[in-house]
Specification:
Elements lengths: L1 H11 L3 H18 L4 H9 L9 H9 L6
Amino acid sequence: METMIKTVAEKSNISESQAKIAIDAVISFLKDKMPGGIGAQVETFIKGNSSPSETVIGTIKEKTAGVFGK
């Protein structure tokens, strides 16, 4: 997440603390708009605590398996 904070700060010409606040706001927004536990998994991934295959992708596969007859 540190890389993301630095990138947002540089590209937006704001401080790193302001960039972190902005990123946290976006994460909060996404968590509120995504179904089920996917929002929390996105937050975990963005904050660098897991790989995408362990979170979002795995959950999507799990939730859509029935749709495709698996």
